[in-house]
Automatic annotation (TrEMBL):
The keyword DNA-binding applies. This is AcrR family transcriptional regulator. It comes from Streptomyces pseudovenezuelae. The keyword ATP-binding does not apply. Keywords: DNA-binding, Transcription, Transcription regulation. PROSITE patterns: HTH_TETR_2 (PS50977). It comes from the Bacteria. PANTHER family: HTH-TYPE TRANSCRIPTIONAL REGULATOR YJDC, TRANSCRIPTIONAL REGULATORY PROTEIN. Residues 36-55 bind DNA. InterPro entries: Homeodomain-like_sf, HTH_TetR, Tet_transcr_reg_TetR-rel_C_sf, TetR_C. Residues 13-73 form the HTH tetR-type domain.
Length: 205
């Protein structure tokens, strides 16, 4: 006869990585504010007590979900392009063209989680909005740093403005994310990407 006394009261085991992936997808689809604890636990297949024990509160879960997203191929493509491409122009060309395909891909929620997940947050959740804003501004800083290196290498003319160019491409990428959420296709976003690349300044002569 099996002794079940040791199991009595023990919380049901679950795959933490799978649960986090489910939470990430739900936050990505609905945003932080519109996603309730009840919806999260249902999607993750766990009880509220298990969520709090494993992830902390909703804000902590969201922050971990964003970091999970950032490590995924869908969330990391910009950093990968900047690291792998030999020139800044090749890197930004790849980023824009890949964003045009990734953001409207029906295999996952449209757009970028980091860009869209904190819309319409309440005052008590301003920390979440600031968290995502800091991540986006961090990406902007990475863009600018790469462009300054390109300018020093002669890839951009001395007249080029790396700060303004970084801000421009960040604005285009954020706009592409929103357009994808509004139903824009990969073909439409590719047209946007190609138009944006026309703004690339001349190299140093």
């Amino acid at each position: 006869m099996t002794d079940t006394r040791a199991k009595r009261g023990r919380p049901r085991a679950f795959d933490r990585a799978e649960a986090l992936t489910a939470a990430t997808r739900l936050f990505w689809e609905r945003g932080y504010e519109a996603t309730s604890i009840g919806e999260l636990t249902e999607a993750m297949g766990i009880r509220p007590g298990s969520l709090y024990a494993a992830f902390g509160d909703k804000k902590s879960l969201f922050k971990e979900a964003v970091h999970c997203y950032g490590r995924s191929p869908v969330g990391a493509f910009m950093g990968v392009a900047l690291e792998e491409e030999p020139t800044a122009r090749a890197a930004f060309t790849r980023i824009l063209r890949e964003a045009a395909v990734i953001y409207p891909d029906p295999a996952h929620p449209a757009g970028c989680l980091t860009i869209s997940a904190a819309t319409n947050v309440t005052l008590q959740d301003a920390e979440v909005e600031a968290f995502l804003r800091n991540l986006r501004n961090g990406n902007l800083g990475v863009f600018e740093a790469r462009l300054r290196v390109a300018q020093q290498a002669g890839e951009l003319s001395d007249a080029a403005n790396p700060r303004a160019l970084a801000a421009y491409f960040a604005a285009v990428i954020q706009g592409m994310s929103q357009r994808a959420r509004d139903g824009a296709t990969a073909a439409e976003l590719t047209e946007t990407a190609e138009l944006a690349l026309v703004a690339w300044p001349a190299a140093r002569h």
